[in-house]
Specification:
Length: about 425
């Protein structure tokens, strides 16, 4: 079940392994052609006959070829097979995000090619084959106290809002797709503004690629958009790619206004439930270390960068050796969390200082009359800043959003009254 990580075999490829290679969405014609369209301009791609399943483009560095898709894949596998040919003489091939390679030992033994394998990001996934239902998974994965909290969060969210979960595949219209992607970007910008760090997915070139490639891949059933709704409002969105038996969580975000409900954990529960009901064996959280991945995954692996080079070429040996040490040092800095500091600095340099609102809930003394209170709509731009606070109120007092009324105390700028079916409380803003 799933892919075997860095299992070296002889050059004989089993039917199951061949099937897994062919179903990798990041090796598909659609993914690679759209990547080339967005990142290669007029450059041509090429193949090397002994490296199966991969396309390469020529770098500006002499003799260096890099695999198409580069670091925007969520893990690739390939096969080394055949004879070293003249086309590879003096050349170095750089391959990003490798999680499996077939035929490595046999190929290197009989050919004049060297290989550096540089460990990079950790990867995390959930193997689901041993579980029947979401409740089965939660019961066998988490301690009693954690199970109680997870079930409480999900139940509380469903008690306070009209929640639905939708997996969009090939029936999604282009108009509906565009609307979801607009919400996707808005939620990502909102989330990373709150975290005060930059996010490479939002860089114009990268975002345009994701938006351009995902729709045709959805139509080919090689990608899916998972959306969690409160009524018609998207509150969490995940773009996932699909292989033969594996769901790759590529980009995911939740609305920070619902943070009190632990929406990130709830979304994972919905994804696991969907995978189990639809017979998917693996939910892959892909590369990168995050606490939630440690909590939920039951298998950890490593992504590697592979550097294949002609051992008979002095320049190829120097280049490959330099690349190996450069990316080894880069991984060292990543493990020391230098990249996190860099993302924070980048955010500060690119964005103006933002103002955040603190608040406190106060027991209501009932002194105001109806004439002193003005109804406000938290779904308008003017009062949208109150939405997260109101959601905290709903969570704490187990009120349903349809019973919530928000009233502004007349002649004040910082005092409101939140009225639910069973609870009335004052809200004091601290600007």
């Amino acid at each position: 079940m799933g892919w075997a990580f860095f299992r070296c075999t002889d050059i004989t490829v089993t039917n199951q392994q061949d099937k897994m290679i062919q179903s990798n969405p990041f090796l598909s014609h659609t993914f690679l052609s759209y990547w080339s369209k967005h990142f290669l301009t007029d450059q041509k791609t090429r193949t090397f006959c002994f490296v199966k399943n991969l396309l390469f483009y020529k770098s500006k560095c002499p003799g260096l070829y890099i695999n198409t898709g580069k670091n925007l894949t969520k893990g690739i596998n390939y096969e080394l097979n055949g004879e070293f040919s003249k086309e590879a003489k003096g050349k170095t091939l750089f391959i990003y995000d490798v999680i499996d390679v077939l035929g490595k030992e046999a190929f290197l033994k009989k050919n004049a090619m060297g290989l550096y394998s540089v460990r990079q990001y950790p990867g995390f996934l959930i193997e689901l084959g041993a579980y029947q239902t979401l409740d089965d998974f939660v019961s066998r994965t988490f301690k009693k106290s954690s199970r109680y909290k997870l079930r409480k969060y999900k139940k509380r969210l469903e008690e306070c809002f009209n929640i639905s979960f939708k997996a969009y595949n090939d029936e999604l219209s282009k108009e509906g797709y565009d609307a979801i992607f607009d919400d996707f970007r808005r939620l990502l910008e909102k989330r990373f503004s709150e975290k005060k760090i930059s996010n490479n997915n939002l860089a114009p070139k990268e975002w345009n690629f994701y938006k351009d490639v995902a729709y045709p891949m959805i139509k080919e059933k090689k990608a899916t958009l998972f959306v969690l709704y409160n009524n018609d409002e998207a509150i969490s969105i995940t773009l996932a790619y699909m292989s033969e038996n594996r769901v790759f969580d590529a980009i995911t975000v939740f609305d920070i206004d619902y943070a009190k409900f632990h929406l990130g954990s709830i979304k994972i529960m919905y994804l696991i439930d969907w995978c189990l009901k639809n017979n998917w064996d693996v939910l892959d959280f892909s590369k990168g270390h995050f606490d939630y991945k440690l909590r939920w995954s039951n298998r950890k692996f490593d992504f590697h960068y592979h550097i294949l080079y002609d051992k008979n070429s002095l320049w190829a040996r120097i280049l490959s050796f330099t690349l190996m040490h450069f990316f080894t040092f880069k991984q060292y800095l990543r493990e020391k969390r230098f990249n996190e500091s860099l993302y924070k600095l980048t955010y500060v340099l690119r964005n103006k200082k933002e103002k955040y609102i603190d608040y406190s809930f106060l027991e209501w003394d009932g002194e105001c009359t109806d004439g002193d209170l003005k109804p406000v709509d938290i779904n308008t731009a003017e009062y949208a800043f109150l939405k997260g606070i109101c959601n905290d109120f709903l969570y704490l007092h187990q009120e349903h959003v349809q019973n919530l009324n928000v009233l502004k105390v007349d002649k004040t700028e910082d005092f409101f009254l939140l009225v639910g079916q069973n609870k009335k409380i004052g809200l004091k803003l601290m600007m």
